[in-house]
């Protein structure tokens, strides 16, 4: 259901929140109106701090046993956990069954059970009884329910009945619908129009940041996160986008700082713990990485995404420690859970590359090359897979094999492809094919100076700008 973020910026709400949080710290009770308590539940829920929202809901129900707000929250949590019976118990415990939120909850239960025709009959029956001035708000809430469960067509259908097509909350939902369809460009345009009207709504910046994450546009995601955090420095979605974008930009130390702030707000969060583990691995701190990755596995309740990522990273760690048996056990565990999340065609092939990399780390070249060959064949010679293999081989100083896979890459690289030239250039130089190495280095300086800096940075004089690399390579004798 839609939550009004602007409410959380009001002084009255801030006073109530402070009063409640100070009372909790001191172990005291605080008495306030049930609507104010429900607002605090919504705030914690909106910020991802579910444990605190649950604690407030429990306390509210001590004071107001049949109150609708806390029961609706608890019912929705039960639905999210797949406990439909508990959700119905919470629903039936509500005193005022004439309240519109009770109706929304009964509809949500039907949607959660995929009883869409029944849900729509209930909605239509209620819609016909409404006064015209009440209908737009009703349609917004119904649209939000369908969007929450990714039923795009009924969501669009009900939202299109609204009179106010430019209503800001309707446009937010339309942006989410575009995301569900994979039309990220359209979603960004809608969010940009909303930001133009109200640049201080941090939810807009966070939503746009998450869309950029889907597209691996880390610079844009970071910009959105920084705007969001300038408005609300502790909001968890902003911290999440900042951490993910910094990690994606290859800045693990700053990413770790962002994830630490996130985990201070939401302790024992498996998704943050696995990201911390991955970032620590990037910095080379394998012992701390291992600690966080194991915490993630303990806390994730077998979430396939977390189990897969944590297992992949642990496989790499144990391989580095020359414990190949344990490394391969973790890769087996990763594959067990990856079947639930591998909706991207290359996920399985990337795991084959990782298996090959593990064998190389343990001086098992023949076994490693077998997995690389399998990955290339299964991926139908996908250039991204071939490039990843080149990087692995380069890391192990297997320069002749890098050249072999570079020649495979050249045959399949699409127009505009710019990766791998530096790895190949250094490999040709290392195998004393100097002229080929120099020509490829010159090309790399033009098409991908960032890769040149990453791999060959020490070769250039201090202070030389990346756009000057080509002229330097062209004129220097190697």
Q: Secondary structure elements and their pairing?
A:
Blueprint: H1 11-26, H2 34-46, H3 50-63, H4 68-80, H5 84-92, H6 100-112, H7 116-129, H8 135-148, H9 152-159, H10 168-180, H11 184-197, H12 202-214, H13 218-231, H14 236-248, H15 252-265, H16 270-283, H17 286-299, H18 304-320, H19 324-338, H20 347-361, H21 365-378, H22 383-395, H23 399-412, H24 421-430, H25 434-447, H26 449-456, H27 469-475
What this model shows, in words?
It contains 27 helices and no strands. The protein has 478 residues and is mainly α. The chain is elongated, with a radius of gyration of 27 Å. It starts with 10 loop residues before the first helix and ends with a helix. The model has no long low-confidence stretch (mean pLDDT 91).
List keywords for this structure.
478 residues; mainly alpha; 73% helix; 0% strand; elongated
Overall pLDDT:
91
Q: Biggest sheet, open or closed, and with what strands and sense?
A: none
Broad structural category: mainly alpha
Instruction: Count helical runs.
Output: 27
> What is the tally of beta strands?
0
Report low-confidence residues grouped into runs of 5 or more: none
> What is the CA-atom radius of gyration, in angstroms?
27 Å
Helix/strand order, N-terminal first = HHHHHHHHHHHHHHHHHHHHHHHHHHH
Spatial separation of the terminal alpha carbons:
64 Å
Helix proportion of residues, in percent? Answer: over 70%
Shape: elongated
Beta-sheet strand percentage? Answer: under 5%
């Amino acid at each position: 259901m839609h939550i009004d973020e602007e409410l959380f910026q009001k002084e009255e709400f801030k006073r109530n929140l402070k009063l409640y949080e100070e009372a909790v710290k001191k172990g005291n009770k605080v008495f306030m109106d049930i609507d104010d308590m429900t607002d605090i539940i919504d705030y914690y829920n909106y910020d991802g701090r579910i444990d605190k929202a649950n604690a407030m809901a429990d306390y509210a129900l001590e004071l107001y046993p049949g109150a609708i707000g806390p029961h609706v929250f608890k019912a929705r949590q039960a639905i999210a956990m797949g406990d439909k019976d508990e959700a119905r118990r919470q629903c039936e415990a509500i005193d005022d069954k004439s309240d519109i939120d009770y109706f929304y909850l009964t509809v949500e239960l039907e949607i959660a059970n995929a009883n869409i025709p029944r849900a729509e009959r209930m909605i239509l029956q209620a819609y016909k009884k409404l006064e015209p001035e009440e209908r737009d708000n009703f349609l917004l809430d119904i649209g939000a329910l369908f969007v929450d469960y990714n039923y795009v067509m009924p969501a669009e259908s009900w939202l299109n009945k609204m009179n106010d097509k430019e209503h800001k909350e309707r446009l937010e939902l339309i942006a989410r619908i575009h995301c569900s369809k994979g039309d990220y460009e359209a979603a960004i345009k809608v969010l940009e129009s909303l930001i133009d009207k109200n640049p201080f709504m941090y939810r807009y910046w966070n939503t746009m940041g998450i869309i950029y994450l889907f597209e691996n546009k880390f610079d844009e995601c970071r910009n959105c996160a920084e705007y969001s955090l300038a408005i609300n420095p502790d909001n968890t979605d902003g911290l999440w986008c900042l951490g993910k974008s910094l990690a994606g930009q290859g800045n693990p130390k700053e990413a770790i700082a962002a994830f630490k702030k996130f985990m201070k707000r939401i302790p024992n969060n498996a998704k943050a713990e696995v990201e911390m583990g991955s970032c620590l691995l990037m910095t080379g701190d394998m012992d701390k990485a291992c600690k966080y990755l194991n915490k993630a596995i303990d806390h994730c309740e077998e979430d396939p995404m977390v189990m897969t990522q944590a297992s992949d990273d642990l496989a790499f760690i144990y391989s580095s420690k020359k414990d190949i048996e344990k490394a391969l056990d973790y890769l087996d565990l990763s594959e067990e859970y990856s079947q639930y999340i591998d909706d991207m065609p290359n996920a399985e092939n990337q795991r084959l590359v990782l298996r090959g990399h593990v064998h190389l780390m343990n001086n098992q070249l023949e076994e490693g090359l077998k997995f690389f060959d399998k990955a290339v064949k299964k991926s139908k010679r996908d250039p991204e897979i071939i490039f990843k293999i080149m990087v692995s081989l380069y890391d192990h100083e297997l320069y002749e094999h890098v050249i072999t896979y570079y020649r495979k890459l050249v045959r399949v690289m699409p127009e505009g492809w710019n990766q791998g030239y530096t790895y190949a250039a250094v490999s040709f130089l290392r195998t004393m094919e100097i002229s080929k190495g120099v020509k490829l280095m010159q090309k790399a300086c033009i098409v991908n100076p960032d890769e040149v800096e990453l791999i060959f940075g020490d070769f250039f004089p201090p202070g030389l700008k990346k756009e000057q690399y080509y002229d330097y390579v062209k004129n220097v004798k190697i």
